[in-house]
Write a structure and sequence with these properties.
By secondary structure, the chain is α+β, with helices and mostly antiparallel strands. The protein has a single domain, classed as GIY-YIG endonuclease, CATH 3.40.1440.10. It is globular and about 35 Å long. It starts with a helix and ends with a helix. InterPro entries: GIY-YIG_endonuc, GIY-YIG_endonuc_sf.
Amino acid sequence: MSDSVTLYVLQYQLKRNLHPFTREEILQLPTGRSGVYVLWRKTGTEGRNECLYVGESTTCVRRRLLQHHSNAQNDGLHSQLRMFRSIVQFSVEFTEDAEETVSLESELIREWKPKTNLKMNLDKP
């Protein structure tokens, strides 16, 4: 399978495997697993979602999501979570190694251009 097909499949899975952004849902994730995660905000009544944030953890996705849940250090994301927490969802794709994790995060940020990603905004000229 080519890289573009693999990325397409990953994007599809991340858009479909949504969980409410609650502490209880996050605690159901396994500990000590690396991966990428996406925070989504429901928009409209057609079941569409806006990508708020793409992140990665090379050590523990669960711990990183709990950090976002309790207090996002990114001001833009914190503002979105405060206003829309009841309609925010998350999805996760676990990875095998740090290189894959960082690469996937970069690809997803480049593809979806979430407004609250500081990494994306720092790359702008």
